[in-house]
Design goal:
2 copies of one chain form a homodimer.
Chain A: H1 13-36, H2 43-50, H3 54-60, H4 64-71, H5 73-76, H6 87-105, H7 107-115, H8 121-142, H9 148-169, H10 175-189
Chain lengths: ~200, ~200
């Protein structure tokens, strides 16, 4: 995030310093969230891990929800796959990517930490936005085959194939389980009489 | 839990006091977990909420994992429905009961709090046991129609219909979404050539 690609013509040393500070704090906030949990995400703790003063943190991120938002910026950079138009392959690809994010980014711990923010309005808004963005690729693919209650069910069902084992048992599904889930959903989409049959 | 039903012949006043203490502490530990989160589940905080001394708590529940186990006893008492043998009705019934537990017991907050215990061995064992028990009725019903990877996929998918909206967005699914999910799964089970076709 501090690489040359972020530099623009005319950027000053001051700008570069701010970019670096933001990247350091975002990283420290993410690490605190994943490794120490939701409650630990305070200005004091993030300042300590990032190696900046609390004054600096309060200046740029006045509220705890600002720290939460910056912690989750790492997730926004997460690369979804380009859809190929093959619904089965695209769904399997998205779920495989989701599984990899659980392993690499500890997305299960991010999800569970965010779930504990329900009592705070600003935090809840961030959660809804982040999770909505995270589900969007699966929603877009499934919209080709489903609508209404079936669409909502299918989105939660496919999210659940990765989310439930990781949140409930700390495991991730094997390839054959992901494929079985996609086939169960698509078999229904392909049923006789479905106007959006695939 | 302190009602006459728990009394046995020959029970002394001392026994009754212990039963009441256990019920009070279990209740306070559950409330701390749901309302204040995983990190707040300490001997000091539970003692304060239950109105007992820390000494009493350490005597009966020496480790934090003992407090966690007692907090989750409330979930063990949770009544699952008696299966009727009608797979569709039984699955819809289980998911409706799960949804009600999210609303009444804040099961979503319990799940997310437990998800943050991944780093502690004893806590992780308790989580695995509790979540395994919670999924057992759905597993038992689905075993009538699925096996192998399809069974694991179907269990996570149906759990996800309730768990994903509540954990990700703080909402619960409508009846028609639950019914659509069950129909998607059972339509696949009823496909031509399935040896366990329902």
């Amino acid at each position: 995030m501090t690489s040359g690609r972020d530099r623009r013509a005319g950027e000053t040393a001051e700008d570069a310093r701010i970019v670096r500070t933001r990247a350091d704090v975002a990283r420290a906030a993410f690490d605190v969230l994943v490794e120490e949990g939701s409650e630990a995400l305070t200005h004091a703790r993030v300042a300590e891990r990032a190696g900046y003063s609390k004054t600096t943190l309060y200046k740029h991120w006045p509220a705890r929800s600002d720290l939460a938002a910056t912690a989750l910026e790492a997730l926004r950079d997460f690369q979804h796959r380009e859809p190929t138009g093959d619904i089965r392959a695209d769904l399997i690809g998205e779920l495989t990517t989701f599984r990899q994010a659980v392993l690499d980014l500890r997305l299960d711990r991010v999800l569970s930490a965010m779930a504990q923010w329900a009592t705070l309005d600003t935090m809840r808004q961030i959660r809804t936005e982040i999770n909505g963005e995270g589900q969007r690729p699966i929603r877009n693919i499934l919209q080709q085959a489903f609508e209404g209650a079936e669409l909502e069910a299918a989105i939660s069902m496919l999210s659940g194939v990765v989310a439930c084992p990781s949140l409930m048992f700390g495991t991730v599904p094997d390839d054959d389980v992901i494929e079985a889930a996609v086939d169960i959903v698509l078999h229904h989409a392909g049923r006789a009489g479905n106007p959006r049959s695939v």
